[in-house]
Amino acid sequence: MLSLITIIVSWDATALSVALATITSQLQGTTFQSFWASIAFTLGVAVTQPIYASVSDVLGRKLPLYVSMVLFAVGSVIFATACNINVVVVGWLIQGLGGGGLDVLETIILTDITTLKERPRYQGVMSVSIASGVIGGPLVGGVFAAYVNWRWLGWINLPFVGSAALLSILFLRLRSIDMDFKTKVRRLDWMGFLLFTIGATAVALPLSWAGSLYPWGSWRTLVPLTIGCLVLAVFAFLERKAIEPMIPYRIFDNRTAIVSTIFSSVFQKSIAAVGDLPESLSILKDSSRAIDFIPELRTLDVSADLMDSVIDAYQKTFQMIWLVLACIAAVASLISFLVKDLTLEKEEVGRQAFQSS
Q: Could you count the other beta carbons within 10 Å of the beta carbon of residue 28?
């Protein structure tokens, strides 16, 4: 069940970037509308993940899991039946609102049902599922857009979501929280949810369009960015007083949690670049967008499996593991800055493979 969830979320996160040009052309969308379509899913996922995590701590895992499944399925249907690009944006945004819950809850549920010793093995299985979705998304997205129909990118999600929902109903057994439902709802950090959603959205949007739609120095970039930072500052202050804070301050007392969060942020930034890579390669090189970044995705698959095995075997030598990963990341970043000419096929393939590792 958890593997199906990771496949569909990672699948959709990468499929649109390949099919977006075809969708925009067929629906006669503008560049501005295409921009919103390209960030709608990712924005929905990023904003809702901490909210789902907080809600699941208070209400339990199953209710937010089922809500996220319904949102993901509804968004898929809206996307598949869209008659214009604006409806595509709405569909992908609703999918993102559901995908954020699916993405974070599969990790939380895995933590609930496994011991610390068992977790690396199951995380290895989840890594294969994620890599399968990330690799398959661009390929299937390109094939559907070019040879079948891009609407099947929405319809194909329904069997996966339905199967995951059925399996969770039949086999997922989690300990319920012994508290009245109304009491649980009152304990939720509603003000924190609102402030975080506004602040995170106001920060993410100008960072997305700066340098493309509007210059970095434009008021359209600076004003929402400033407002977003101020709202997030208010959110951080009020979290100290919340009964069930969305982001409890106690997590920052753990040095391992802080370092893991920083590295996870860097990794997610690399994954987010996958959305822009196909379009960039198609502009700079006369080649297939879906095929061109297979080296990055395939190496991501192999390196994830390898590191899960290493962690499982050498749990007492984490400092050496972190050091090796940091060195690889630093060298990969340096290579990214040094690569100037994307017409050199071998250099580009090598850079992608090394960076994704």
A: 9
Kindly write down the DSSP assignment for every residue of 12-31, as one continuous string: HHHHHHHHHHHHHHHTT--H
* Residues 165 and 303 both lie in one domain: no
Residue 203, domain member (yes or no): yes
C-alpha to C-alpha distance for 109 and 171, rounded to whole angstroms:
13
Q: No. of H helices and E strands in the chain?
A: 16, 0
Q: How many C-beta atoms lie closer than 10 Å to residue 15's C-beta? A: 28
Report the Cα–Cα distance between both ends of the chain, in Å, rounded.
27
Are 276 and 209 in the same domain? no
Considering the domain architecture, whether residues 306 and 284 belong to the same structural domain is answered as: yes
Question: Residue 89 is encoded by which pair of tokens?
Answer: 């944006």
Query: What are the tokens at 123?
Result: 């995380």
pTM, entire model: 0.79
| 347 found inside a domain | no
Q: Which of 84-88, 184-188, 343-347 has the lowest mean pLDDT?
A: 343-347
> What does the alpha-carbon distance between residue 101 and residue 55 come to, in Å, rounded to a whole number?
10
Task: Find tokens 């994620």 and name the residue.
Answer: 130
CATH code for the domain of 52: 1.20.1250.20
